[in-house]
Amino acid sequence: MGTHVIKMPDIGEGIAEVELSQWHVKVGDLVVEDQVLADVMTDKAMVDIPSPVHGKVIALGGQPGEVMAVGSVLISIEVEGAGNLKESAAPTPVAVKEPAAPKAEAVVETKPAAAAPRSAAVCQGPMVARELNERPLASPAVRKHALDLGIQLRLVRGSGPAGRVLHEDLDAYLAQGQSNAQAPVAAAYAQRNDEEQIQVIGMRRKIAQRMQDATQRAAHFSYVEEIDVTAIEELRAHLNEKHGASRGKLTLLPFLVRALVVALRDFPQMNARYDDEAQVITRLGAVHVGVATQSDVGLMVPVVRHAEARSLWDSAAEISRLANAARNGKASRDELSGSSITLTSLGALGGIVSTPVLNLPEVAIVGVNKIVERPMVVKGQVVIRKMMNLSSSFDHRVVDGMDAALFIQAIRGLLEQPATLFVE
């Protein structure tokens, strides 16, 4: 038997150190070639480190959250034969995952299909023995899905990192017919003194750093306007009824993307990036719309490139493809970078008003709140209309308040008179 030592690989781009974000193995585990051993986080992306050999883990070189130099010992594996006496670096890392940029609360686990399966597959079994006050790890989307299905997350085995419950775990649980299983119920007014400490590392640390950086560097201001979306919702329903089966269903998002494209023709200063170190504003002709998407590991922003050249159905298909790729861990670095303006929405959870945080170096972000039916006065008559707020933020260093207001009013006009979205 011998020892194969894997060193922290050179990720490239001149990076000298990376953060160890997550172990997917522990001492004593048997691993196979190409199995993912750990996640490491650079300034720009999360990277999977695969095993180049079969063997048994005998030592780990660091703890999650630790910053490690390139070339330092990452992991030692016991192997058949003489082992790796030269302690060569790990093979080329795979599965680059872009960290989330700062955004408002929005609706984006990023593990690519190319990576080998984790040592833990979707867990099976009737239920999980958790304490009554133990909170299972799960994203907000998974928690809502479980609530809709009537599943108690305490009873579901998690197959994600650190036992995180994923959507496929809910599916596996339902397939076993366990959705009606009963769990002990804690006393409704029992006194609790438990505490939980969560280390901010990996993707969450990068999100926190970028959010803080954005709010410290940019002079944020927000502008909120309500929009009557009755007409555009009627148009959307009509198009879905007529073309949904052949072209796919339309949500409101592709209409919003189209409204951005048209409005930006008159307000090019919103479709820009500001390099505050070089003191240069770059206005783009191309409209690359970032669509904030929530994933199990945090917020991600896949980019609909050249939205100005896309039809409603083309935009809808691209939004759906990118969101699924981000949630399922298949989005590439190029798909998660390069936006010129961002659209963020919490869908039905959108609330009345929000204050989105800019995605630097962009200078504008448009936030979408939920649609509600309200009595409104139209031509002297009280009628029920579908209303929605746009809560948008701008960088006051380069965008004047009047221009921001006029920009949102232009979007409002386009959405309230949807035919104008398509008049050239």
TrEMBL record:
<keyword id="KW-0012">Acyltransferase</keyword>
<comment type="similarity">
    <text>Belongs to the 2-oxoacid dehydrogenase family.</text>
</comment>
<dbReference type="InterPro" id="IPR001078">
    <property type="entry name" value="2-oxoacid_DH_actylTfrase"/>
</dbReference>
<dbReference type="InterPro" id="IPR036625">
    <property type="entry name" value="E3-bd_dom_sf"/>
</dbReference>
<comment type="subunit">
    <text>Forms a 24-polypeptide structural core with octahedral symmetry.</text>
</comment>
<dbReference type="Pfam" id="PF00364">
    <property type="entry name" value="Biotin_lipoyl"/>
</dbReference>
<keyword id="KW-0808">Transferase</keyword>
<keyword id="KW-0450">Lipoyl</keyword>
<dbReference type="Pfam" id="PF02817">
    <property type="entry name" value="E3_binding"/>
</dbReference>
<feature type="domain" description="Lipoyl-binding">
    <location>
        <begin position="3"/>
        <end position="78"/>
    </location>
</feature>
<dbReference type="InterPro" id="IPR000089">
    <property type="entry name" value="Biotin_lipoyl"/>
</dbReference>
<dbReference type="InterPro" id="IPR050743">
    <property type="entry name" value="2-oxoacid_DH_E2_comp"/>
</dbReference>
<dbReference type="InterPro" id="IPR004167">
    <property type="entry name" value="PSBD"/>
</dbReference>
<feature type="domain" description="Peripheral subunit-binding (PSBD)">
    <location>
        <begin position="137"/>
        <end position="174"/>
    </location>
</feature>
<dbReference type="InterPro" id="IPR023213">
    <property type="entry name" value="CAT-like_dom_sf"/>
</dbReference>
<dbReference type="InterPro" id="IPR011053">
    <property type="entry name" value="Single_hybrid_motif"/>
</dbReference>
<dbReference type="Pfam" id="PF00198">
    <property type="entry name" value="2-oxoacid_dh"/>
</dbReference>
<dbReference type="GO" id="GO:0016746">
    <property type="term" value="F:acyltransferase activity"/>
</dbReference>
<protein>
    <recommendedName>
        <fullName>Dihydrolipoamide acetyltransferase component of pyruvate dehydrogenase complex</fullName>
        <ecNumber>2.3.1.-</ecNumber>
    </recommendedName>
</protein>
